[in-house]
Amino acid sequence: MATLLHIDSSVFPTEASASRAVTEAFRKHWEEQHPQGTVVYRDLAAEPVAHITADAHLAGFVPESAHTPGQAAAFAERVKLIEELEQADAILIGAPMYNYTIPSTLKAWLDNVILIGRTAGENPSAKGTPVTVVASRGGSYAPGTPREGYEYVQNYLEAILADGLGLDLEFIVPELTMASQNPAMADLIPLAEASRDRAFEAAATRARKLAERVAA
């Protein structure tokens, strides 16, 4: 049966997090199509993975037979994360924008799963796996907006996930999520609500399409 790797990185609970709300909706629709399937879930805010260390990094360039005890232990933790990535039929990532980029916990996960010669390089081991990223943000950084140049979420993740790991990437972008909380953004509330509705619709559509793709 199909396996979904679901990763959340928002520091807020679902009721206060746009990214978690949309990934939850995606997962619900996915599970409706695959009730007997498997969901591997990682909440990086609740249980962050270790930031990359010298041992964990260097172990990726040394034969396992030559690993020091420290390298062996650190690399074993990386391999767990890498195998979850490789064994997934689809990947779902909640990536809210914090200070113009992704949460540090998500960056730590990426640093662990990027392994040249295995997941990255000439023949990435998870190449072609569909990955859906819910890239929520409090304002708007879309092309043509005043803060377009401060968008370091989608451009970064496209470089890593699509170009680096060879994944089949699609973004869902709920924006203006702070409009209802920031009086200065009150005029943007209708746009924020429309963006939210589009995000939930996109999550449902994407989940169903991927379910059909995996089944085929």
UniProtKB/TrEMBL annotation:
Residues 3-162 form the Flavodoxin-like fold domain. Keywords: Flavoprotein, FMN, NAD, Oxidoreductase. Binds 1 FMN per subunit. Gene3D superfamilies: 3.40.50.360. It catalyses: 2 a quinone + NADH + H(+) = 2 a 1,4-benzosemiquinone + NAD(+); N,N-dimethyl-1,4-phenylenediamine + anthranilate + 2 NAD(+) = 2-(4-dimethylaminophenyl)diazenylbenzoate + 2 NADH + 2 H(+). FMN binds at residues 10, 17-19, 136-139. Its cofactor is FMN. It is an enzyme of class 1 (oxidoreductase). Its EC number is 1.6.5.-, 1.7.1.17. Coiled coil: none annotated. Homodimer. Belongs to the azoreductase type 1 family. Quinone reductase that provides resistance to thiol-specific stress caused by electrophilic quinones. This is FMN dependent NADH:quinone oxidoreductase. It comes from Streptomyces musisoli. The gene is azoR.
